[in-house]
Write a structure and sequence with these properties.
Blueprint: E1 4-14, E2 23-30, E3 38-43, E4 48-53, H1 54-60, E5 65-66, E6 70-75, E7 79-86, E8 89-96, H2 97-110
Antiparallel strand pairs: 1-2, 1-8, 2-3, 3-4, 5-6, 6-7, 7-8
Length: 124
Protein backbone atom coordinates (compact mmCIF):
# COMPACT_ATOMS: atom_id res chain seq x y z
CA UNK A 1 0.00 0.00 0.00
CA UNK A 2 1.33 3.38 -0.88
CA UNK A 3 0.49 6.93 0.08
CA UNK A 4 -1.55 8.83 -2.50
CA UNK A 5 -0.60 12.47 -2.79
CA UNK A 6 -1.95 14.87 -5.36
CA UNK A 7 -1.69 18.59 -5.86
CA UNK A 8 -4.74 20.44 -7.09
CA UNK A 9 -5.19 24.07 -8.03
CA UNK A 10 -7.57 25.85 -5.71
CA UNK A 11 -8.94 29.27 -5.00
CA UNK A 12 -8.91 30.01 -1.29
CA UNK A 13 -10.98 32.54 0.57
CA UNK A 14 -9.72 32.85 4.12
CA UNK A 15 -9.26 35.24 6.97
CA UNK A 16 -5.60 34.16 6.95
CA UNK A 17 -3.03 36.33 5.18
CA UNK A 18 -3.11 34.77 1.68
CA UNK A 19 -3.92 36.14 -1.76
CA UNK A 20 -7.47 35.19 -2.67
CA UNK A 21 -7.41 35.85 -6.43
CA UNK A 22 -4.60 33.45 -7.34
CA UNK A 23 -4.98 29.72 -7.86
CA UNK A 24 -2.63 27.96 -5.47
CA UNK A 25 -1.60 24.32 -5.02
CA UNK A 26 -3.51 22.43 -2.34
CA UNK A 27 -2.14 19.06 -1.21
CA UNK A 28 -4.58 16.13 -1.17
CA UNK A 29 -3.20 13.17 0.76
CA UNK A 30 -4.34 9.65 1.59
CA UNK A 31 -2.35 7.23 3.71
CA UNK A 32 -4.02 3.80 3.90
CA UNK A 33 -1.47 2.57 6.46
CA UNK A 34 -2.24 5.42 8.84
CA UNK A 35 -6.01 5.79 8.36
CA UNK A 36 -7.73 4.04 5.43
CA UNK A 37 -11.02 5.89 5.95
CA UNK A 38 -9.68 9.45 5.95
CA UNK A 39 -8.16 11.96 3.57
CA UNK A 40 -6.11 15.06 4.34
CA UNK A 41 -6.13 18.46 2.70
CA UNK A 42 -3.17 20.77 3.25
CA UNK A 43 -3.71 24.49 2.78
CA UNK A 44 -0.60 26.47 1.87
CA UNK A 45 -0.02 29.76 3.63
CA UNK A 46 -2.09 28.70 6.62
CA UNK A 47 -0.02 25.67 7.72
CA UNK A 48 -3.35 23.91 8.24
CA UNK A 49 -3.92 20.29 7.35
CA UNK A 50 -7.44 19.00 7.67
CA UNK A 51 -8.27 15.32 8.13
CA UNK A 52 -11.79 14.11 7.44
CA UNK A 53 -13.56 11.04 6.14
CA UNK A 54 -13.12 10.02 2.55
CA UNK A 55 -16.86 9.31 2.38
CA UNK A 56 -17.62 12.92 3.37
CA UNK A 57 -15.55 14.15 0.43
CA UNK A 58 -17.29 11.73 -1.91
CA UNK A 59 -20.79 12.62 -0.66
CA UNK A 60 -20.06 16.33 -0.87
CA UNK A 61 -19.30 16.09 -4.58
CA UNK A 62 -22.94 15.09 -5.20
CA UNK A 63 -24.83 17.08 -2.53
CA UNK A 64 -23.99 19.24 0.50
CA UNK A 65 -22.43 17.16 3.27
CA UNK A 66 -20.50 17.91 6.40
CA UNK A 67 -19.95 18.01 10.10
CA UNK A 68 -19.05 20.76 12.58
CA UNK A 69 -15.53 21.30 11.22
CA UNK A 70 -15.68 20.36 7.53
CA UNK A 71 -18.35 20.92 4.90
CA UNK A 72 -18.25 19.94 1.23
CA UNK A 73 -20.70 20.77 -1.53
CA UNK A 74 -20.87 20.90 -5.34
CA UNK A 75 -20.58 24.35 -6.90
CA UNK A 76 -22.01 24.19 -10.38
CA UNK A 77 -21.06 21.35 -12.67
CA UNK A 78 -17.28 21.60 -12.55
CA UNK A 79 -16.30 22.78 -9.09
CA UNK A 80 -16.68 21.83 -5.46
CA UNK A 81 -16.27 23.81 -2.27
CA UNK A 82 -14.56 22.65 0.92
CA UNK A 83 -15.20 24.74 4.02
CA UNK A 84 -12.99 24.32 7.10
CA UNK A 85 -13.92 25.75 10.52
CA UNK A 86 -11.43 26.22 13.37
CA UNK A 87 -10.93 28.46 16.38
CA UNK A 88 -8.80 30.68 14.12
CA UNK A 89 -11.60 31.21 11.59
CA UNK A 90 -13.05 29.75 8.43
CA UNK A 91 -11.25 28.80 5.22
CA UNK A 92 -13.19 28.17 2.03
CA UNK A 93 -11.47 26.27 -0.78
CA UNK A 94 -12.86 25.93 -4.30
CA UNK A 95 -11.46 23.09 -6.44
CA UNK A 96 -12.26 21.41 -9.72
CA UNK A 97 -14.50 18.40 -9.23
CA UNK A 98 -12.45 16.40 -11.75
CA UNK A 99 -9.32 16.77 -9.61
CA UNK A 100 -11.17 15.57 -6.51
CA UNK A 101 -12.70 12.62 -8.38
CA UNK A 102 -9.27 11.65 -9.75
CA UNK A 103 -7.85 11.80 -6.22
CA UNK A 104 -10.71 9.70 -4.80
CA UNK A 105 -10.27 7.06 -7.52
CA UNK A 106 -6.58 6.83 -6.69
CA UNK A 107 -7.39 6.41 -2.97
CA UNK A 108 -9.76 3.54 -3.72
CA UNK A 109 -7.08 1.89 -5.86
CA UNK A 110 -4.69 2.14 -2.89
CA UNK A 111 -7.20 0.53 -0.52
CA UNK A 112 -6.27 -3.06 0.25
CA UNK A 113 -7.93 -5.86 -1.68
CA UNK A 114 -10.97 -7.25 0.10
CA UNK A 115 -12.13 -3.85 1.23
CA UNK A 116 -15.86 -3.24 1.05
CA UNK A 117 -15.28 0.11 -0.65
CA UNK A 118 -15.12 0.21 -4.43
CA UNK A 119 -14.70 2.70 -7.24
CA UNK A 120 -17.99 1.85 -8.96
CA UNK A 121 -19.86 4.76 -7.38
CA UNK A 122 -17.16 7.25 -8.43
CA UNK A 123 -17.65 6.87 -12.17
CA UNK A 124 -19.28 9.80 -13.94
Amino acid sequence: MSVVEQYARAHIVSDADIVEDEAIPVVLRYDPESDPRSVRVGLPGTHDEWTFSRSLLEQGLRAPAGNDDVRVWPCGRVQAVLEFHSAQGVSVVQLETKALLRFLRRTYLATPMGSRESTAHLQQ
